[in-house]
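Margin note: ligand = 2M8.
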Amino acid sequence: MLAVRPGEKIVSDRQALIQDAQGVLDRNWTGASTIPSRSLYPHQWSWDAAFIAIGRSWQEQRRAEQDLETLLAAQWASGMVPHIVFNPAVPAGAYFPGPEFWDSAGAAGHPNGPATSGLTQPPLHALAALEVHRRAQDPGRARAFLERVYPRLAAQHDYLARRRDPAGHGLAVIVHPWESGMDNAPVWDEDLELAVPPGAVPPYRRHDLVNADPGDRPTQAAYDRFVYLAITYRDKGYDDSRLLAGSPFLVEDPLFNSIWCASAHAPAEIVPAGYVDAIIADLRSEHFRPADPGAFLVPSSDLVSPEFDRRRYWRGPVWINTDWLVWRGLMQHPAATGGAELAAEIAASMVRLVSRSGWREYFDPFTGAGYGSADFSWSAALVIDLLRTLAADQGDKP
Ligand code: 2M8
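Resulting structure:
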C-alpha cells in the first residue's frame, strides 16, 4: 500500500535527502536569488521564490530573506508583484518570452531596476515571509526583515483587492493562465478557446522545446494563445482598470484565491468543515487516486477526464508544490475524517518520487518517472520543509 501511518518514518536517511535537496538550492543560487532551474528557467519566478524561501527558512535565513526581498524589490507602483524578475546577466534569448517581449520599462509604474514580466502569480509571499520569521536563527534580524517587507506585502494584497476584483466578488481574477502557476491545466482549455487573429502573434522561438522533451511541454496551439494573451495585456499597458470590458481571459481561479486567503491569514479554520470533507473525498476517489496502490499522489488533473495526460505539463503529472499545498492544508485540519492518513500518504509519495527520480520538475503518477527540468528548486525546497516539519512534529532534531 501507499499508506504510511501518521507518525511513521517515511524515509530511511532523512539527512542524506535533505543534503541532496540543499545541493539543488546551492547550485541554483545566483547571489541574489534562486532560479527555478538552470536549464528551463534561468530568471527569478514569483511563487517559486515563496516555495524556495520556505525550504531555505530551516537553515538559511539570510538567503530565504534575500529570495523574497529580491522579488519584492521588483514590485510595481500599483503593488503588483511580477511573475518573473529578469536577471540582466543572463544572455538575451535564454528564455522566451524574455524582457524584450514584456517591455516592462515602457509600462507605467515599473520600478527602476531589473526588467520584469507584466503578469503576477499566486501571492504566497506573506505566508512565506512569516515562515522565514518563525524559523529564524536570528530573531532580531528576522523582525527587521518583516518590518521591511510588510509594506510591500500589504501593497500586493491591496493591489489584488483594488485592481483585480472587477466584479466585486471579493475574489481576484487572473488575466492569463501563467498567473495561475498551473499554466497548462485542462481547466483553462474552455477559456482559451479564443481565435488568435492572423498576424497578432509575431514569429517567436520556444526555448522550452530545446531544454525539455516537447512531450512534457504545452502544445504549439496552447503556446500561441499564451503569447497572444500576454501581447493583448501588454499592448494595453498592463492596465487593470477596464478588465471586464477588455480581457479575453478573465478567471477567478480557486487555487490563486485560496493562496491569497491563506497568505492574508484568513485562517483555514474558517473554511466550513463540509468543504474539507468534500475535498478529501475527491482526493480519495478515482479522480485523483490511481487504482494501483504503488502509484503516486496527487495527479494535477482529473485522472478520468479525457484531457488527462500523465506527462504533459500541468495536465496530469504530480508536482511537488501542489502536493505540498494539499499536504499543508490537510495538516491544518487534523480532525477531518481521513485527513491525517491522506496527508501521510502524500508525504510518503513526495519522498518516494524524489528518491526514485531525483529533483525533477514533475512526475508520472503511475510510474514516478521524472519530467521537465532536473535540479528543480521548489521540489528541493519543499521536500526540505516536509522532512523537517515531520521531524519536528515527531520531536526529532531536524
Ligand atoms: C512554469 O511557467 C513558466 C511561465 O511562467 C513557463 O512555462 O515558462 C510554471 O510551472 C510556473 O508555475 C512556474 O512558476 C514556472 C517556473 O518554475 O514555470
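The beta strands are 44-45, 84-85, 362-363, 370-371.
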